[in-house]
Automatic annotation (TrEMBL):
This is Ribosomal RNA small subunit methyltransferase E. Residues 19-63 form the Ribosomal RNA small subunit methyltransferase E PUA-like domain. GO terms for biological process: rRNA base methylation. It is found in: Cytoplasm. Specifically methylates the N3 position of the uracil ring of uridine 1498 (m3U1498) in 16S rRNA. Acts on the fully assembled 30S ribosomal subunit. GO terms for molecular function: rRNA (uridine-N3-)-methyltransferase activity. InterPro entries: Alpha/beta_knot_MTases, PUA-like_sf, RsmE, RsmE_MTase_dom, RsmE_PUA-like, tRNA_m1G_MTases_N.
């Protein structure tokens, strides 16, 4: 059954209002009509069965018939801090990281990032990336929508990491075995994973991260591309501590 995202504010008195891009997909792409059954979800854990009641003025009113809370989210909180890569690689990274269950993605402006964004472009990119995350949630049948934050500097990112979180920095120059680090660390911590862009992290950036408590780790003997490294690290953490493979 077709699945559509609505915010909590769009659900009132047993009716969900589907608008914006979701309405365009419902009405113009899928050509659904009044009487058709659909599923809507609020991005905060709840999913609803419903029937389209009317299509009017760029919105669809859906009469809700049942609701359920979905236990599809890991209790493990994983954030991917990804150095801005070239081209459309960020879109792939966000899509796949969302499927793997991350709580959020933080684009980082790093020394070796070739991509440079002004404030207007940052806003446009973030909106585009957030839409990709929503689509990935719909496809993977997740119940929570991960946040895609505005691109920021490494310094700002490090200042805002919550106390007690585990900060991992996969680095091609070497570090402790990721497997060993996870085995020796309590698994009730939020995890933040920092990935460099093409060319990797600079020694200065690694030193800065270490001064904030980061642990440099190895993902194995092979050099991984930036679009592979973050997903590999997220997969390893979610398998060891989360619900991947459960």
């Amino acid at each position: 059954m077709h699945r559509f995202y609505v915010s909590r504010e769009q659900i009132n008195n047993g009716t969900a209002t589907v608008n914006g891009e979701e309405y365009k997909h419902l009405a113009r792409v899928l050509r659904l009509a009044p009487g058709d059954p659909v599923v809507v979800f609020d991005g905060a854990g709840w999913e609803y069965d419903g029937v389209i009641k009317r299509l009017q003025d760029g919105q669809a009113d859906v009469s809700l018939t049942s609701s359920r809370f979905l236990p599809r989210e890991s209790t493990l909180e994983v954030w991917l801090a990804q150095g801005l890569p070239k081209g459309d690689k960020m879109e792939l990274i966000i899509q796949k990281a969302t499927e793997l269950g991350v709580r959020g993605i933080i684009p980082l402006e790093l020394e070796r990032s070739i991509v440079k964004l002004d404030e207007k472009k940052k806003k446009e990119k973030r909106e585009r990336w957030q839409k990709i995350a929503v689509e990935a949630v719909k496809q993977s049948r997740r119940s929570l929508i991960p946040q895609v934050l505005q691109p920021c500097s490494l310094e700002l990112f490090l200042r805002n990491i919550p106390q007690g979180a585990l900060l991992l920095v996969p680095w091609e120059e070497g570090g402790a075995s990721l497997k060993v680090v996870l085995e020796k660390t309590p698994s009730n911590k939020p995890v933040y994973i920092v990935i460099g862009p093409e060319g990797g992290l600079s020694e200065k950036e690694v030193a800065l991260a270490r001064s904030s408590g980061a642990v440099t780790v190895s993902l194995g003997p092979r050099i991984l591309r930036t679009e592979t490294a973050g997903l590999a690290a997220v997969t390893a953490v979610m398998y060891q501590w989360g619900d991947l493979g459960a």
